[in-house]
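@channel anyone free to eyeball this complex?
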Amino acid sequence: MSSREDILGRVRTGVKRDSVNVLAARAAVSEALTVRGHGPKPTVGTKPGAMLACFRDRSDIHATTVDVVEREGEVPAAVARYLGELGLHKSVVAWPELLYLDWASVGLIVEGRGAQASDLVGITGCFCAIAETGTFMLCSSAGTPASVSLLPETHIAILRETDIVPYMEDAWALVRSGPGRLPRSVNFVSGPSRTGDIEQTIVIGAHGPYRVHVVIISSESARESDNRTSAVSGSAAANEKPVI
Amino acid sequence: MRVGLFVTCLVDLMRPSIGFATIKLLETAGCEVVVPAVQTCCGQPAWNAGDAAGAAALAKKTIAEFEAFDYVVVPSGSCADQIRTEYPCILSGQPGWATRAKVLAGRTFELTDFLATVLKTDRVPGRLEATVTYHDACAGLRSLGIKTQPRELLALIPGVRLKEMSGCEECCGFGGVFSVKFGEIAASIAERKCENILASGAQTVVGGDLGCLLNIEGKLRRMGHDSITVRHIAEILAGE
Amino acid sequence: MEIKSMYFKANASLKLADPVLQGNLKAVRGKFVEKRIEALKELDDVEATRDAATAIRRRVTDNLDVWLEHFEQNAVAAGATVLWAKDGAEVCRLVIEIARRHGVSKVVKSKSMLSEEAGLNKALEAAGIQPVETDLGEYILQIDGNEAPSHIIAPAVHKSLNQVADLFHKIHGTPRKTDISALTREARDVLRSHFLTAQMGRTGANFLVAETGSVALVTNEGNGRMVTTLPPVHVVVSGIEKVIPTLEDLATLMRLLPRSATGQSISNYLSVLTGVRMPDEQDGPDHLYVVLVDSGRADLVGSDFHEMLNCIRCGACMNHCPVYQTIGGHAYGWVYPGPMGSVLTPLYRGLDQALDLPQASTLCNQCGVVCPVRIPLPDLLRKLREKQTEQGLRSVSERFGLRLWSWLAQKPQLYSLAARFAARYLAWLAGGEDRIRVLPVFSEWSLGRDLPAPEGRTFREIHARRKKQALKDVATALRKEGR
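replying in thread with the prediction:
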């Protein structure tokens, strides 16, 4: 008897498996896989701006730095500013799909390939980000090599405010809505790597990146609705004092 | 109301005054207290040691002796837990006894729980001027939910200032037979509890379980601390 | 791993007398406890989340066979090879076979307790293959003569900074340093070269997701990502009980696992790996093997200890255990320490191999109230004690003593007599003092404590005497009134 049959056989004995209850078991399993119920989730505000704020707060806690820009065109400058402030190496690798951004205009030499050990900065996008925990989600593919976010000491992730979802469950729903099977590797990243293995003292920077920086392109629609809100409260205030 | 006092084997052997303090508290609160003379042990040592037959025999004996009372009151969280939580499990396989166990379980209370929750006592005879700290015994706390009851009762004594120790809910290392089977480990755990007690600055440490109190007092004395008093809450509340 | 649990008491004694270990244990004591409490405040309803996590685990373990088949089917469909191993020896055989097939001379490992069970490192070395631990804590232990881990999450928790500094200085030949960041940097540099040159990455699995046939890894250091991205071969060795149904279930469990383990809201990395490198991808393994391991787990299904299968290996139980906190993990003598280790070791290795482990507990339940998947650990420990009694594994004197106590307690007159004698005897031992310093019976009590002196008479005899006196007084009073 193969080990597989031996092990499954003893498991079946343990659950008192017979030809009748196996049907109920299979039905229960199918149902669980179809329903995919959620467990209890902590409250995360979903009003415009609230998820961005939550993402920033959580990022702060696990030492991810965050920069917000208003337009996609401002991203290269934001990245250059970050690298310049830290006096970091200017030559970087990035996901090939990010080469369309105008890196040259800010003096950055960016190569679109997987990272090697000698690369010091890696720039990626992300599939989506999770407000609840300040996490971003990286899915592997030909254009999004995993090594770019892993090998270099500094990792910069670019994401849009509209990519931020409240919970990990929402991230899974997004992945499932895509074609085919799950990407080979899905990595949820929450901050620079760390360890506490020496005297339980947390040290930032273990095997993965030492620094994680996120550049978020804030959303037009979110800002517009914010303006509308402030216009409403502005007019209420206007009743109390003369408008200049 | 007729209350049967389950005095516990440790109180019987080591500190009868706790038993008398309990009677005083219950009578002051208006209960008729009866002490069945044939009671012995609730069977927890047997149960915890894995002697299911011995535990079952003692469970049946205790049930037979106490089921006629309106309530059964126990000056110990662990013994009360044995009757309330474990007796129904121990006898679950014997339908007649299982029912009787459940009925008795529903009527059995640890002392402070009975005074605070059932009788809603708002007055106690005890008078004391002291800073006290309270040790939450494990079974009483985690199994029976006894936390606020002793503190509410202590607050009824004007001179008592309660100062919580850090780790008041941590085990003191008694664990029944554990304390004599693994004496070194038990003493080490007790040391930590005593350090917390000393750090609280309290003059008196109070608890609801005599096993814990003997363990704590024994450790304090071995550590050279003779002036801290160690009392059962019944004694404090009754003013013994 | 060789089992030493039969020497528990002696080893515990040594650990209690070890000043360096005691200092280290004191320093970390309470840290995990406090962090967990803080992290749980972030959840709206902790108990509801625990209920959900427990239900997820029961859903699988109650139909483990069907769930395993689903996982296997989906993993294979994604390009993994799924293998089954009955025990540690078979795990080693399979992994070595895979290594030989792919010409592997070096394996980089991310932490796996199951590989400790199987003694995999030793087997690989014997086969001429170099295993390299990459988790910092495990790496420290590996270079210190392959010392065993003392905690399932923080394997080197028993080591002090100075001990690590000495070790790195000795093994790396670098100048001695005590800055923790610098030591970590040094380890990173040493291990990086291994990541880049190893031909096989080996991990455990925190969870196996049946829905997609995926392997979920929870890490903080990045080594888990390294060993599953760079080498061409990835081998996963996982217990069969690690299966969970869906990706949503993974999200629920991830709300409790990091919080229970280290007090983090979320681990640094959660890697969900499905199948092998796609044809146009630049990184990832070409070959993925998942070895599903029994090693005692199948026999727990449907047994009195079924609930132990819920375990998600968070380590909260040992963090809260007063016994673990005072003796550390090594005294338990095998892979798993603390409460979960005291249940699993006798079940996986045989009751007679670890007699003291289920006994060395106060049954305080500090573990059970923090277990994210509601395993009733004290009940299971007590049940193991019952099994020991049933199988005649307790000593004659202990069995006799317990029998005697139970018998005596059923005979109220004799019991009363014995108690009266004991009360007087103990009072006599105290010799007028308020304490007994050395007990001639149950002498282990006296190892670290005095015993407060008894009052000298039993409650029952005083109560009976007072009752008799009260009746006498009533009778006298009645006679005086001429009735």
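from a first look: The CA atoms of residues 135 and 190 of chain A lie 5 Å apart.
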